[in-house]
Amino acid sequence: MIKKHEAKRNYEEPCSIMFACSGQRASVTDICQGRPGKKKLLPAAILVFLLMAIPTIGAEIDGQWVGTINRSNGTKLEMRYRFRAEGTRLIGLIETRNGGGPISEGKIEGTSIEFKIVTNGLNIINNGVLSGDEIHLTETIGTEKTKFVLKRVKYE
Question: How many distinct helices (H) and strands (E) make up the chain?
Answer without folding.
Answer: 2, 11
